[in-house]
Amino acid sequence: MLRKPQSGALRGTRLQAIMDMDVNAMMTVIPRISQSRH
C-alpha cells in the first residue's frame, strides 16, 4: 500500500525526476512511502 508522501520522503530527490518516472528516483521514494501488508 502506498501512502501520500510527506516532505521528508522526497528529500534527496528531484521532483522533476519523479514526474519523469526516473527509475532511480522511484527506487529512492517508493520504500519511504510504502507499507507492507502482513
Beta-strand content: under 5%
Overall average residue pLDDT: 91
Helix content: 40-55%
Secondary structure: number of strands: 0
Q: How would you characterize the overall build of this protein?
A:
This protein is mainly alpha-helical. The chain has two helices and no strands. 3% of the residues are buried. It comes from Escherichia coli O25b:H4. This is Phage protein.
SSE topology sketch:
Blueprint: H1 15-19, H2 23-33
Protein name: Phage protein
Organism: Escherichia coli O25b:H4
Defining traits:
38 residues; mainly alpha
In short:
The chain is an all-alpha fold. The chain is built from 2 helices and no strands. The model has no long low-confidence stretch (mean pLDDT 91).
